[in-house]
Amino acid sequence: MQKRVVITGLGPITPIGIGKDVFWESLIKGKSGIGKITSFDADEFSSRIAGEVENFDPKDYVEAKEARRMDRFSQLGVASAKMALEDAGLAITNSNADRVGVIVGSGIGGLKTLEEQHKILLEKGPKRISPFLVPMMIPDMAVGNISIALGAKGPNFCTVTACASGTHAIGEAYEVIKRGAADVCIAGGTEAPITPLGVGGFCAARALSTRNDEPTKASRPFDAKRDGFVIAEGAGIVILETLENALNRNANIYAEMVGYGATGDAYHITLPAPRGEGAARAMQMAIDESNLDCKEIDYINAHGTSTLYNDEFETMAIKNVFGKHAYDLAVSSTKSMTGHTLGAAGGIEAIVCALAIEKHIIPPTINYEYPDPKCDLNYVPNQAIKKNITAAMSNSLGFGGHNASIIIKELIEHRHGE
After folding, report:
1. Do residues 389 and 272 share a domain?
2. Residue 1 banded pLDDT, cuts 50, 70, 90
3. pLDDT band at 417 (very low <50, low <70, confident <90, very high)
4. Fewer CB near the terminus (10 Å): N or C of the chain?
5. Which member of 163, 185, 203, 353 is catalytic?
6. How many CB atoms sit inside 10 A of residue 225's CB?
7. Is the pLDDT of residue 354 over 70?
8. Residue 71, Cα to own-chain centre: how many angstroms?
9. 3-state DSSP call for residue 337?
10. 16, HSE (Cβ side, Cα atoms, 13 Å)
């Protein structure tokens, strides 16, 4: 018999706040976390804005020596995981460590470390390269560092599917628990791409917004004047566990995870498939697994990147899957506030869905000023709305044609104390 899976802990680290309370308050107020890049001199770049995490000190979460041996994406991931585990009130001990997995995605990994060590190679030669280059750079080291820091010895791997990495990680963790290979999984995504090479690469691809004089208005998903996404950093980790395990320890349960869909476009390295065909299949797959009628889904946290084709094709995909119900749905993109955290986005946005279900509030899509006739759904423009949410979907779509959708819903038994 397959296990039921619930969410019991949340650990957001974002450009609009660290920790679930500050993060949520910023979301419902429509606060933007976008500003001019401060981590390096970006004057020569076409896009000079980003969503940077402020007031993050890794030494608040790991010893200084260990922090120096981690790239920033690993530091963010470890901190987020510790935060989520604390929120869940869960202790990892010798008796349960083998049953606690870690599955965390990152689209790029330790780009800052790679850049710094390459510079050392060119200027000082190969003998000066740090022995920690490889274990700081490779994308799976956030997962490795999390498991070491927390003592989790269960299934342990990294999903690397560009901007879908975090959602794939949560989906795969859900499957691992459901089939009985673990009782708990620490899952989500982490990313620290705000470096000269990271920003420069996306600038070269003409993917980033160049609204440099109005940073807080640059990320504008579904708006007719959108001109690209805003790069951002952060981490979003959730604690997934069996319903039985959560009830046995009297844990706070945010929601139940009930559906996961993963598909490939087989179309283009960066462009989404026409009409969002691949995204539509992922959404339908998640709905089919959830055993919900599509009309029971009240909210979609869209991938909503603020790029021309993504927003148009994701809108088409939602309409193809939900039919007339698409116009009754609330669809918002919280990237309008956080920016696009790439591999971390799915983890952060799963947290948004869990809190929306708990709080009965849907966060807005800010900067929605000029309607696009091709994007004609209810994007919760500029103001949060109060709404009881039975079920919520989160979409993530990545370069390479990777599509992932998850569905979480209110746990009725928990609500009624049954």
Report:
1. yes
2. confident
3. very low
4. N
5. 163
6. 12
7. yes
8. 19
9. helix
10. 25
Task: Provide DSSP, 330-385.
Answer: EEE-THHHH-B-GGGHHHHHHHHHHHHHHHTEE--BTT--SBBTTB-S---BSS-E
Is the CB of residue 119 less than 8 Å from the CB of residue 281?
A: no
| Residue 415 located in a structural domain | no
Residue 50 · residue 208 · CB < 8 Å: no
Report CA-CA distances (Å) from 106 to 16, 119, 126, 187, 370: 20, 23, 27, 11, 33
The one catalytic residue in 185, 203, 303, 375 is: 303
Q: Are residues 230 and 316 in the same domain?
A: no
Residue-number span of the structural domain to which 314 is assigned = 259-408
Q: What tokens appear for 35 in the block?
A: 């500003």
Both tokens assigned to 254: 């945010």
Summarize pLDDT for 186-231 with one digit per residue, the tens. 999 999 999 999 999 999 999 999 999 999 999 999 999 999 999 9
d(CA 132, CA 382): 45
Same domain? 308 vs 211: no
On the question of pLDDT at 414 being above 90, the answer is no
- Give 155: exposed, middle or buried? Use CB within 10 Å, 0-12, 13-18, 19+: middle
Q: Of 213, 248, 283, which closes a domain?
A: 248
In this predicted structure, what is the pLDDT of residue 268?
Answer: 96
Model confidence over 52-65: pLDDT tens digits? Answer: 999 999 999 999 99
User: Is 303 annotated in the active site?
Assistant: yes
In terms of domains, do 17 and 75 share one? yes
Tell me: do 127 and 168 sit in the same domain.
Answer: yes
- pLDDT per residue over 276-317, tens digit each? 999 999 999 999 999 999 999 999 999 999 999 999 999 999
> Strand 17-18 vs strand 5-14: parallel, antiparallel, or unpaired?
antiparallel
Q: Write the CATH number for 213.
A: 3.40.47.10
- What pLDDT is recorded for position 65? 95
Q: Is 163 a catalytic residue?
A: yes
